[in-house]
Amino acid sequence: VLLSITCSPPQNYPLYIRSIPTENELKFHYTVHTSLDVVDEKISAMGKALVDQRELYLGLLYPTEDYKVYGYVTNSKVKFVMVVDSSNTALRDNEIRSMFRKLHNSYTDIMCNPFYNPGDRIHSRAFDNMVNSMMMQVC
């Protein structure tokens, strides 16, 4: 399982990346960076409809043999990408959606911190604990 939070375009640099287990971390990073193009395509295809919607969940971006890649975009165009093992059939779309909402709420808490500069990498023990507990539920 991998979670990535990426800054808005045109930079698209990672603000937060966490993977469990860590042995395929480089492959996960490659998957996340290729999925950012798919996220941008989905956003441009939705156009103004995405702005009007309250739901920012993009759903399954693309499946591979080994993984399924899901996406979510905030109003400020910050992208959340989650990569899960395709053999995990217990995860349903509603569960992925609720995990992204939980991530978005925690990300909002970080953004409300007066000591956090938007665009900096996320270094928060509370956010790490929330992500770790969420990943343990998936694994």
Task: Summarize the structure in short.
The protein has 139 residues and is α+β, with helices and mostly antiparallel strands. 43% of the residues lie in helices and 23% in strands.
CATH topology assignment: Beta-Lactamase
- The whole-angstrom Rg is 14 Å
Number of strands: 5
The residue ranges in which pLDDT falls below 50 over 5 or more consecutive positions are none
The fraction of residues assigned to DSSP E strands is 15-25%
For the record, the count of structural domains works out to 1
Measured as a percent range, the helix fraction is 40-55%
Order of helices and strands: EEHHEEEHH
What is the CATH architecture assignment?
2-Layer Sandwich
CA(first)-CA(last) distance: 7 Å
Shape: globular
For the largest beta sheet, what order do the strands appear in spatially? 2-1-5-4-3
Helical element count? 4
Overall structural class, as computed from helix and strand content, comes to: alpha+beta
